[in-house]
């Protein structure tokens, strides 16, 4: 009798591990498909100030990103787990351009300020001079 209970327990554990594994691969597939299907992707949470900051960079550049608001999805937690496995970070936002991982909010702002973001997007960013002749990025 004890052997039957042990075998049944092992089968239940194995089945649950398979279910978790298939759920994980499904979420990872969603992340990869989303990244490859859109020029600009931001994995975000609607209430996050860092996410709003990253999104505002693209607004400034007059670019419309595809935004996945993880907190507004039933599977958002699982998607964030899959994203964490892919990029090595669990934080949001996570920004991708042309399939390339840019990073989070600070990385996105830094890429914007250095001109790297405009180059990756294939757009021109005009520069204007302040009264002290410092160059700052400007998007018309």
TrEMBL record:
One GO molecular function term?
glutathione disulfide oxidoreductase activity
Protein's GO biological process: cellular response to oxidative stress
Q: Name one GO cellular component term.
A: cytoplasm
Q: Name one Pfam family in it.
A: Glutaredoxin
The signal peptide, as residue positions, is: 1-23
Q: Does the keyword Transcription apply?
A: no
- State the PROSITE patterns in the record: GLUTAREDOXIN_1 (PS00195), GLUTAREDOXIN_2 (PS51354)
Q: Which UniProt keywords apply?
A: Disulfide bond, Electron transport, Redox-active center, Signal, Transport
Family from the record: Belongs to the glutaredoxin family. CPYC subfamily.
- State what this protein does: Has a glutathione-disulfide oxidoreductase activity in the presence of NADPH and glutathione reductase. Reduces low molecular weight disulfides and proteins.
Q: Indicate what this protein is called per its UniProt record.
A: Glutaredoxin domain-containing protein
Which organism is the protein's source? Gossypium stocksii
Q: What is the lineage of its organism?
A: Eukaryota, Viridiplantae, Streptophyta, Embryophyta, Tracheophyta
């Amino acid at each position: 009798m004890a052997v039957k209970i042990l075998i049944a327990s092992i089968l239940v554990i194995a089945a649950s591990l398979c279910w978790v594994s298939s759920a994980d691969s499904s979420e990872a597939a969603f992340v990869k498909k989303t990244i490859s299907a859109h020029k600009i992707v931001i994995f975000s949470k609607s209430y996050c100030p860092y996410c709003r900051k990253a999104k505002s960079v693209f607004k400034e550049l007059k670019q419309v990103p595809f935004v996945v608001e993880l907190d507004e999805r039933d599977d958002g937690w699982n998607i964030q787990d899959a994203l964490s496995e892919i990029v090595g970070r669990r934080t949001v936002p996570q920004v991708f351009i042309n399939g390339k991982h840019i990073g989070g909010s600070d990385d996105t702002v830094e890429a914007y300020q250095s001109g790297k973001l405009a180059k990756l997007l294939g757009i021109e960013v005009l520069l204007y001079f302040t009264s002290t002749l410092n160059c700052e990025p400007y998007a018309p």
